[in-house]
Amino acid sequence: MVQDIRQLLITTITEKKENYYRLAYSYVKNKDDALDIIQESIKKALISVDKINDSQSINSWFYKIIVHTALDFLRKHKKVTLADVDTLEFFSQGHEDDYQNIDLQKAIDDLPVKYKSIIILRYFEDLKLEEIAIILGENINTIKTRLYKALELLRIKMD
Fold first, then answer.
1. What whole-number distance in Å separates Cα of residue 126 and Cα of residue 123?
2. All domains of the chain, ordered by start, with CATH?
3. Ranges of residues in the chain whose predicted pLDDT is under 50
4. Cβ atoms of 100 and 91 closer than 8 Å
5. What is the value of pTM for the model shown?
6. Alpha carbon distances (Å) from 90 to 93, 94, 95, 150
């Protein structure tokens, strides 16, 4: 049974690796740090794979591990966000910005973590509110309230 769940976990991670990387990157904004978070998350998942009761919840369970690992990383590194090499190269060569909603991204980055997490999981990872509640370990009504508040804060910042 544990071997089957372990294999299912490996398959899920392999199939959704881009989504998991994107989630980690959305927290740290650095390729190497995002990869470290993913690596650490995989390690944690493999160590505690026997704690999975429902094989249908592997995806949500692994998202939860990534979010907590990313938050731990930010706590340890005092939320310092560094530009990665590609970003530095891009700007050092004098390229013009092709506008990729920079104001929106900045506004999301400025949100408190409890709101930022919900925005990222809902709109960038396209998860349902119920899944977000499981991942963040919160009540569904709390998630709804925080999502509403986060959208309100974004609206204010964008005006």
1. 5
2. 1-95 (1.10.1740.10), 99-159 (1.10.10.10)
3. 80, 82, 91-92, 94-99
4. no
5. 0.72
6. 6, 7, 6, 31
**CB proximity list for 121: less than 8 A, separation 6 or greater:** 23, 63, 67, 127, 131, 132, 135, 136
* Amino acid of residue 150: A
Task: State the residue for tokens 């990869």.
Answer: 35
d(CA 155, CA 147): 12
Q: pLDDT by residue (tens digit) across 5-46?
A: 889 889 999 999 999 999 999 888 889 999 999 999 999 999
Residue 50 CA to residue 66 CA, distance in Å, equals 18
Euclidean distance between CA atoms 129 and 125, whole angstroms: 11
Identify which of 159, 132, 126 has the alpha carbon closest to the alpha carbon of residue 146.
132
Report in angstroms the alpha-carbon separations of 12 from 56, 61, 131: 11, 11, 16
With vertex at residue 87, the alpha carbon angle to CA 154 and CA 40, rounded to the nearest 5 degrees, is 80
